[in-house]
Amino acid sequence: LRLCAWYLYGEKHRGYALNPVANFHLQNGSVLWRINWMGDTSPRGIGASCGMMVNYRYFLEETASNSALYLGSKQVRASEQVLALVNQFQQNSKL
């Protein structure tokens, strides 16, 4: 979960999210909301994402500002749960 959180939140290509699905949702103003362990146990889900599934949450009153923040300064809005996982990854990582 920590590695997945870092991949979605911290790994970048030209400043934007490396994952194309994450990039799509973040450009449209979502918040990286929750990472679900074994959320997709289909063969495709296991093969593509080790069974993890991500929820992006759209707060309608914040989508425009979230989108502008991401597109302008490349900042990802994320929930406390995701940020805690990112923090744990950073503390334990040798990257």
What does this structure look like?
This protein is an alpha+beta fold and 95 residues long. It has one domain. The protein is built from five helices and four strands, in the order H-E-E-H-E-H-E-H-H. The strands form two sheets. It has a two-stranded antiparallel ribbon. 23% of the residues are buried. The mean pLDDT is 95.
Tally the structural domains.
1
- Residues in helices, as a percent range: 40-55%
Mean pLDDT: 95
Total helices: the number is 5
Low-confidence stretches: none
Cα radius of gyration in angstroms: 13 Å
Please state the structural category.
alpha+beta
Q: How would you sum up the major sheet?
A: 2 strands, antiparallel
Number of strands: 4
End-to-end C-alpha gap: 16 Å
Strand order of the largest sheet: 1-2
N-to-C series of helices and strands: HEEHEHEHH
The proportion of strand residues reads 15-25%
Shape designation: globular
List keywords for this structure.
about 100 residues, two-stranded antiparallel ribbon, alpha+beta, globular, 5 helices
Brief synopsis:
By secondary structure, the protein is an alpha+beta fold.
Question: What is the element layout, followed by pairings?
Answer:
Elements: H1 2-9, E1 12-13, E2 16-17, H2 20-27, E3 31-36, H3 43-49, E4 53-57, H4 63-73, H5 80-92
Antiparallel strand pairs: 1-2, 3-4
Helix pairs in contact: 1-5
